[in-house]
Amino acid sequence: MTSAHAATAPDAPRTAAPGITDVLRARRLLQGRLDPTPLRSYPALDRRLGARVLVKHENLQPTGAFKVRGGLVLLSRMAEAERARGVVTYSTGNHAQSIAYAARATGAPCTVVVPEDPNPVKAEAVRALGADLVEAGSDLDRARVRAEALAAERGARLVSPGDEPDLIAGVATAYLELFTEAPDLDAVLVPVGGGSGAAGACIAAAALAPRCRVIGVQSEASPAAHDSWRAGACTARPDRTRAEGLATGRGFALPQSVLRDRLDDFVLVGDEDIRRAQWWAMSEAGTVAEGAGAAALAGARAVAERFPGGRIAVVCTGGNASPEELRRCTASD
Predict the structure, then answer these.
(1) Closest by alpha carbon to 218, among 293, 287, 295, 150?
(2) In which element (H, E) is residue 254 found?
(3) Quick count: other Cβ atoms within 10 Å of Cβ 303?
(4) Got the DSSP string for 27-68?
């Protein structure tokens, strides 16, 4: 693994990270609730990147994003009395839908706090799932403060978008599917916001595909997770990306504890690189990807020369693009 960490004592996670046994249990819990998502190849993307590219279509989940795996695992594993008191979470969108979907499936009251002026597609989806949507603050950290206060007032379970072992175990099931179907990959590119998906990829790769390099991808406009990994301690950074699924202003301790041990590399891409990758997904793979969902493809373009003739997987983590995003991504290159 790449060693790129300063001699700073790492932050202690809130609780222990899940292992492969936890991921296998999560897969069993999700059986009959979610279908496996397809893994597909597209010759036009192969030509563009100069490598054989497989796309894992988590955008085809019922909420349009991979996060639903974690939400279902977490809510299903809660005690009935705890679920009855409800859950409160904070999110820029896809985690919100995940918890709202799982809360409806398990009969739990749910409140989601989002930053002001959210993606209208994601906001409407949360309301349609029956959750109470609260807009508070200009960014995720300010939304977190409001969510913490609401959870305390109501005696509800506060659900962190990152520091939850069951969320990581749940989203890691996507990588069990990936490595079972394609065990000989040279690399997998994973978008990173809070880091639960990349942590899940690391856990699954260590057990099923130890030769596959797991590479995180984040926007250079919101580099908190990347810089936390580099520094070896959770770090706050400006949060300015247009890709709201990547818009976190600080590292999360639990996923960072996994990434420090197991992530092979972490690359930053520009928001304009992400916009172009959204267009490639649409024009060459017939896939609508939101910004975070296209980030892995942008990252693959940045690192493809390291794997000439190799097999690379990218995870399209979500397809909940706003109308404004779609207009931007179809603008001329």
Answers:
(1) 295
(2) helix 253-262
(3) 18
(4) HHHHTTTSPPPPEEE-HHHHHHHTSEEEEEEGGGSTTSBTTH
CA atoms of 24 and 125, how far apart (whole Å): 29
DSSP label at residue 221: T
Are 294 and 320 contacting, i.e. CB atoms less than 8 angstroms apart? Answer: no
Residue-level pLDDT, tens digit, the chain, 333 residues: 433 333 333 334 447 899 999 999 999 999 999 999 999 999 999 999 989 999 999 999 999 999 999 999 999 999 999 999 999 999 987 999 999 999 999 999 999 999 999 988 899 999 999 999 999 999 888 999 999 999 999 999 999 999 999 999 999 999 999 999 999 999 999 999 999 999 999 999 999 999 999 999 999 999 999 999 999 999 999 999 999 899 999 999 999 999 999 999 999 999 999 999 999 999 999 999 999 999 999 999 999 999 988 999 999 999 999 888 888 888 755
**What are the structural domains, with CATH classification, of the chain?**
20-66+165-329 (3.40.50.1100), 68-159 (3.40.50.1100)
d(CA 103, CA 150): 17
* pTM score of the predicted model: 0.92
Provide the residue type at 100 as one letter: A
